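Discussion board: Methods & Data

I've been asked by a reviewer to show the raw model output for two of the constructs in my manuscript, not just the figures. I'm not sure how much to include, so I'm pasting the format here to get opinions. Each protein appears as its amino acid sequence followed by a line of discrete structure tokens. Is this the kind of thing reviewers expect to see in a supplement, or should I convert it first? Here is construct A:
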Amino acid sequence: MDAAFKPATYLVKPADFGKVDEPEWTATVGGDEGIRYAALIQHRIVRALREKAGDRHPAEYLALLLEESSRKPYLSRKIHGRLPLTFAELTNWIVILGLDPGPTFELPGITARPAKR
């Protein structure tokens, strides 16, 4: 994955990242389907986080759940799609938030291709 990958840049309006149920996504350019898929999964997890946080600030709520209050600025960048979640963070957030990962992977508009051998 590109070190400069910012999930929110895959939205037509990056400010909608994690805030809108069905945002408008940019066109997929050949070869970036996997990264776009990662951005969509992160968007959906952040959307669920915002719903669970309710009136609380999402980064503060998540920092409390993760017991990482000193990392609020870092978590905030992930919540706004300025940094990608690592695989460990993604799975941890799913568990901490009590999410069902099943529907997360139903991704309309992305055609799965068999792996090349």
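Construct B, same format:
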Amino acid sequence: MRTYTQRLTPIGWLGAVLFVAPTPLSYFLLRSTVSEMASTARYRELYEQATGVTSDLGTFSAFPYVLLATLSLVGLVMILVGRETTAFD
């Protein structure tokens, strides 16, 4: 009976880092963005009442999250490509 084992090559390890690392980064970015938007909400409200102009302070940009999601997908592909299978008898 043959036994198969798999291990990651250096490309696979780099892919593992790219797959896992964006998750805490996106949580940190999302949390800071939400708190920033909440702190400017009252200021925006007063500004709109005083001037009658809609303010665009604290707008939400999706670019960092799209970038982190793309890095995560690239990492997954690198994990799949960077595997090495060894057979033992």
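Answer (T.O., handling editor elsewhere):
This is acceptable in a supplement if you add a one-line summary per construct. For B, something like: The chain has a mean pLDDT of 84.
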